[in-house]
Amino acid sequence: MTTHLSAPAAYSGEAADRARVPQEEGALSRFREILLQTGDLGWVDKTLAGLSHKMLWRDDETGASIALVRFQRGSGIPSRHAHASNQFMYCLSGRYTYVPTGITLTEGAFYWNPKGAAHGPTVAEEDSVLLEIYDGPHYPTQPDWYSDPADAR
Predict the structure, then answer these.
(1) I need a surface site. Which of 22, 76, 92, 145 has the fewest CB within 10 A?
(2) C-alpha–C-alpha distance, residues 93 and 16, integer Å
(3) Cβ contact 15:24 at 8 Å
(4) How does DSSP assign 63-106, residue by residue?
(5) Are 57 and 15 in contact (CB under 8 A)?
(6) 131 Cβ partners below 8 Å, 6+ apart?
């Protein structure tokens, strides 16, 4: 038995897809450690104009995830909303503002939005790249600004 493999689990995203070890039985996969160079990954557009992401990792059972999100200047989340879990964001570049409160993420800023706390709308004052982490599912229901349910995962 190889000791560098995980216990069986249900993960997806770029890291998990590359780390998956084929299993002969059972629905859950095992994973090995993996290193991603995020610059080698392509941005995937969401159905909200100006928003794209690189899904790095997701726990398909809990909805927890880690992604890079990119907002083009002038884009953002159009309305007030809340999340079904804690949302954590670390600004890698740009200027991303929560309009009602004036909270602005700039390079090096860490933001925590507690589960159920209403926030937004937002606007990217510059092209912005954020590391976004959820410790569970993103939304209690699909927001109306997404036309594809996969974008709300």
Answers:
(1) 22
(2) 25
(3) no
(4) --EEEEEEE-TT----S-B--SS-EEEEEEESEEEETTTTEEEE
(5) yes
(6) 66, 67, 68, 89, 90, 92
Neighbours of 13 (CB within 10 A): 19
Cα 132 from Cα 144, distance rounded (Å)? 20
* Bridge partners, residue 11, by sequence: 59
Residue whose tokens read 């570049």: 93
**Cα–Cα distance measured from residue 77 to residue 37, given in angstroms and rounded to the nearest whole number:** 28
Distance CA 34, CA 40 (A): 14
Q: What φ, ψ does residue 94 adopt, rounded to 5°?
A: 100, -160
| pTM for this predicted structure | 0.88
Q: How far apart are CA 94 and CA 98, in angstroms?
A: 13
Q: Write down the residue that tokens 């890079």 correspond to.
A: 68
3-class DSSP assignment, residue 21: strand
